[in-house]
Design brief:
Layout (H helix, E strand, L loop, with lengths): L1 E7 L5 E7 L3 H10 L3 E7 L14 H13 L4 H11 L3 H15 L4 H6 L7 H13 L2 H58 L5 H15 L1 H20 L1 H13 L1 H24 L4 H7 L6 H15 L4 H7 L5 H13 L2 H57 L1
Antiparallel strand pairs: 1-2, 1-3
Helix pairs in contact: 1-4, 2-3, 2-7, 3-4, 6-7, 7-8, 7-11, 7-16, 8-9, 8-16, 11-16, 13-14, 14-15, 15-16
């Protein structure tokens, strides 16, 4: 985030500073490190859009910290080394403060808890569980593997959406070109010649006449609507409504549920393998689920706390699939619930990938056909009078 500070420099003059930081404390520390005395600080407005680059690179930090620990460096020295190599001032200040907290005798998890905007609760719980057994390196390795698997699934979904998005964008651009440039010129020609037009052609060419007479206004309205749609899609309540609408669709809703369950089981498995108790792991993973599934998880957690088997509790709450139920039962008997939950997640990830491949292969040609029909309809309606004139001459 960006912060505006008023500070007194070494010469006693008041200056306005514009600094990047993860929070106000990091921005103040950067200013004080330059010799300023901070008078006031406030977050800089960004039109409701989060500043890019302000997200702490947690996966990269974990990988580098893991390498340094395996090389034999003490934890404090490893974090100080990463702070020295960090290019972004706000991240460097963050790591320096974490190292300073460690030098005071605090644990790594307590140091990370002071910066929830950079270190999520799941990461802190993983580190905290490793501190009980003094195996930070395996815990970091599990988290890196966990995050890599989640990123791989996310990349598959993003890659599958790129081509349809390009098709939709190209179709919109061609349609706007026809409606804003070509149609107005055809409407002018037909108006000058008083040609008798079909009903739909009249409607289309009436649009062309409106664009011809009020082009700036029409373009302005389209731009305003596009900007409003962009900001609406970034709004949390609008996103929630769209997500709820998607969940109500039979096929897509089931796949969204499967995706969330796969991520949920992978998170639980990682926490269990790290030594986190089951009920605590369930509670920490609840934020990964849709509100509908979150209420079911609360019921399942109560059932587990009452001594019922995990497989039965999950099944009764609708948080399993046929495969997941069987594998959970096997994990309960073998005492390896963490590994079994990760295997459940891997199985469902593959299922999701197969469904995405099938859906994109079906959706892309349908989308191309729909775009072709829209553009073709506009062109045919423009040329309809010419076709009729050619028919009458024959």
């Amino acid at each position: 985030m960006r912060f505006e500070l008023k500070a007194v420099n070494l010469d006693g003059r008041v200056e306005a500073l514009d600094l990047h930081g993860l929070d106000q404390a990091s921005a103040v520390q950067q200013a004080e490190g330059r010799g300023y005395t901070v008078l006031s600080v406030r977050a800089r407005a960004g039109f409701g859009v989060r500043a890019r680059g302000a997200r702490f690179p947690l996966s990269l930090f974990s990988q580098e910290l893991l390498v340094l620990i395996k090389a034999g460096l003490p934890l404090v020295e490893a974090i100080e080394t990463l702070a020295e190599r960090e290019r972004r001032s706000e991240f460097r200040a963050l790591l320096e403060r974490v190292a300073a907290t460690l030098r005071q005798g605090n644990t790594l998890s307590s140091a990370l808890q002071q910066y929830p905007q950079a270190f999520p609760a799941l990461y802190i719980a993983t580190v905290q569980a490793s501190e009980r057994t003094s195996d930070l390196a395996p815990a970091l390795q599990r988290y890196v593997a966990y995050q890599s698997q989640l990123d791989a699934v996310r990349k598959r979904l993003v890659n599958a959406a790129i081509y349809p998005a390009l098709l939709i964008g190209a179709g919109l651009l061609v349609s706007l070109f026809l409606l804003l440039y070509v149609v107005p010129r055809f409407s002018r020609i037909y108006e000058e010649r008083s040609v008798d037009l079909p009903v739909f052609s009249k409607l289309l060419l009436a649009w062309g006449q409106m664009v011809e007479g009020h082009g700036v206004l029409v373009v302005g309205v389209i731009v305003v609507l596009a900007i409003a749609a962009w900001y609406a899609l970034r709004n949390a309540s609008v996103k929630a409504r769209l997500e709820n609408a998607l969940w109500k669709l039979p096929a897509i809703g089931e796949r969204l549920k499967l995706y969330q369950l796969a991520r949920f089981y992978r998170t639980i498995g990682m926490l269990l393998r790290g030594g986190t108790p089951l009920l605590a792991a369930l509670q920490m993973s609840s934020d990964l689920l849709h509100p509908l599934l979150r209420s079911r998880l609360a019921a399942a957690s109560r059932s587990v706390s009452e001594g019922r088997p995990v497989s039965h509790s999950m099944e009764a709450s609708g948080l399993t699939t046929t495969i997941a139920l069987r594998m959970l039962a096997v994990g309960e008997k073998g005492g390896n619930m963490g590994e079994m939950m990760e295997q459940i997640a891997a199985f469902h990830d593959e299922e999701i990938s197969r469904w995405v491949d099938w859906f994109t292969r079906l959706f892309e040609p349908l989308l191309m056909a729909a775009i072709g029909l829209v553009i073709g309809a506009i062109v045919v309606l423009m040329y309809m009078p010419i076709f009729e004139l050619a028919g009458s001459l024959q």
